[in-house]
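Question (not urgent): is this output format expected?
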Amino acid sequence: MQNSAKLFIVSTPIGNLEDITIRAINILRRVDMIACEDTRTSSILLNRYNIKARLKSFHKYSTKEQALRILNDIKQGKSIAYITDAGTPGISDPGAYLVKLAFENDIQVVPVPGTSAITCAASVSGMTEHGFIFLGFLPGPSLKKKKIINKFINLGLPVVFYESPHRLLNTVRVINDLKADCKMFIFKELTKMHEQILSGTPEDIINKYGSMDIIKGEYTIIAECECSGSKKDFLKYDKKRLLEIASSLTGLDKREIYKRLFNK
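Got this back:
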């Protein structure tokens, strides 16, 4: 690889090991080192494709010093790829921090795109034609979760987020209390052997999963609720609505946003 002293952010399968690109395989074979969340998990994929690169652990508990050591290797001329346990790095995982430090240290970052649970779910929901809001992993406590959901669920766009199995029903109940007329998609174990897609109202989901003794798996959720006014009106993006959305997303005062957007 010409000028190979770079940080490659490489997407890997979220379940089915065949969901990897030829480019990703070639880069993982050629780099000097692969940084990954869990060496045991990553070894399963790498062994499948006979990839022999040296592995180095970098996860959410890794320190800034550990991250800087990885970046220092790149400064010394080594090529390094970063992969997560599954999917596209930098989305609700430690990759985002590593990329941030790389840019701060003038290190070139190269995206190697591929599978992502967000886009995988969105592509078969039929709900994201006009965009969506991604919330990552929601907080555990119900009050914090309710505050975040309530903040974004009335903006007129579907919200997409990840959820763990032991919090799934609690989250759906929170949405049901806020907006019982929502349409929801629950994506379980996408691309894996026990893949399942369930749609309906929050009450439908509760009735389906509430009777199960054990809920296992990894979940991606999409929820779309009716907001005040029609979608047609919302999509016109008048100034008032645009300022409300921008203020909700950024936390900035609407007057400040107005000055930045329109007083030029």
